[in-house]
Amino acid sequence: MTKLSVNINKIATLRNSRGGDVPNVVQFAKDVQRFGAEGVTIHPRPDERHIRYQDARDLKPEVYTEYNIEGNPIKSFLDLVISIKPTQVTLVPDAVDAITSNAGWDIIKHKDFLIDVIQEFKQNGIRTSIFVDPVLKQIEGAKATGTDRIELYTEAYAHQYGLGNTEGVKPYVECAELAIDLGLGINAGHDLSLDNIAFFKKNVPGVQEVSIGHALIAESLYLGVENVIQMYLNKLKAKS
Ligand SMILES: CC(=O)[C@@H](O)[C@H](O)COP(=O)(O)O
Ligand SMILES: NCC(=O)COP(=O)(O)O
């Protein structure tokens, strides 16, 4: 069974665009869980341009499914996550100025750092996952860090699938098979969507969790906009 964790960064981006508190991030997290989401993912970045560190704290008592916090384990992130103790931390090597995550770890190069950080999170009872490109030697490297899981970076799959190239799933299948052999848990995320998720799920074995944000929010706009326009029209038709 593959769990759906909803990434709510975009809700914070929308809120921040106007200041104020609309939409309310905590309420949104409560609602997605009520609608069946099996996890909530956030990815606070140091500039707090979308999810803020305070959001991460405010969400803690309201996330009763799996709470997954993603980010680059700089000191402030490490302190934040250890103070919150979510279900899972996903380590992502994103640069401060990256628009979004754009690469997995070079685990071979950063092995010692990752071993230390993972040990610290695990000592605090937090499950760990490492964001990784679908490259076999990186999966082997992940095993050596002591991490519980990997998160396969699915941007390349999504891009290829969008071009009609279903072969793009192959490196993910191979890496998932290796991860299973090594006893690593498997998550996946980035640019997964209603269009490409079923093929990924059908072909890649053992995926325990997908975290989806950008497409899910964009799709929700389209699937909801007709209803909302009708509601406005009905209110405007009402006699004053
Ligand atoms: C690791 C990953 O792929 C996600 O955490 C993603 O980067 C977060 O979403 P945003 O880039 O939309 O904040
Ligand atoms: N870990 C991936 C994630 O949380 C969401 O990525 P995206 O669906 O916003 O591309």
TrEMBL record:
Pathway assigned in UniProt: Cofactor biosynthesis; pyridoxine 5'-phosphate biosynthesis; pyridoxine 5'-phosphate from D-erythrose 4-phosphate: step 5/5
Binding, 1-deoxy-D-xylulose 5-phosphate: 45, 50, 100
Reaction equation(s) it catalyzes: 3-amino-2-oxopropyl phosphate + 1-deoxy-D-xylulose 5-phosphate = pyridoxine 5'-phosphate + phosphate + 2 H2O + H(+)
Enzyme class label: transferase
Primary location group: cytoplasm
Any one of the GO CC terms: cytosol
Keywords: Cytoplasm, Pyridoxine biosynthesis, Transferase
Sites annotated Transition state stabilizer: 151
Record-annotated active site: 43, 70, 190
Any coiled-coil regions, as ranges: none
Transmembrane helix found in the keyword field: no
One Gene Ontology molecular-function label: pyridoxine 5'-phosphate synthase activity
HAMAP family from the UniProt entry: PdxJ (MF_00279)
Entry function: Catalyzes the complicated ring closure reaction between the two acyclic compounds 1-deoxy-D-xylulose-5-phosphate (DXP) and 3-amino-2-oxopropyl phosphate (1-amino-acetone-3-phosphate or AAP) to form pyridoxine 5'-phosphate (PNP) and inorganic phosphate.
Protein name per its UniProtKB record: Pyridoxine 5'-phosphate synthase
Organism the protein comes from: Snuella sedimenti
